[in-house]
Amino acid sequence: MKHTLIIENTRAWLEHFIIAENLCPFAHKEFARETIRYAVLESDDENEIYDQIVSELSYLDKHKDVQTTLLIWPELDTFEVFLSFVGMAEMMIRSHGLEAAYQLAHFHPQYVFSGVAIDAAENYTNRSPYPILHILRVEEMAKALERYKNPEMIPENNIARMNKIGSAELEAKLRSWQGKSDIKTKP
To answer: 34, 78, 140, 177: which could join 13 in a potential S-S bond, CB 3.0 to 4.6 Å?
Structure first.
């Protein structure tokens, strides 16, 4: 799938789901200001992925105007494999002493929270059209949280919102943002 289509689908998901449903109350500002970087990574090779993450962190260090990056990995369609790469990225950030500068969030078409049923609506808070590693600037996130009333309620509010919409409608929406992708959202 062409990078342009993958990025367009990801932007549509971000705008019409994450922002529209207010799942991340901080996303709208950066989306409107166009300070989100989108990068498509084609490899599932551990060494190449490591190099790409290092490269992206270096890019963010040099480009302070970019607030956050969505690393999109259409090749990592298995949730468990994706989680192993997320773990590698987290260890890499710690081993490079960057945990004070960057933090990670992650999304996947098959995302399932521990202890939650596979088909539970609340999983859609972290389901995305493609596997995505979200690199955030810690300092900017701290500033955003200071300005937001009751940030600890965000996850609970999101779960309630997803349960109100329901799994069937959420699944249909997610599929609409996958374009021609053959990634299955259900394991």
So the answer is: 177
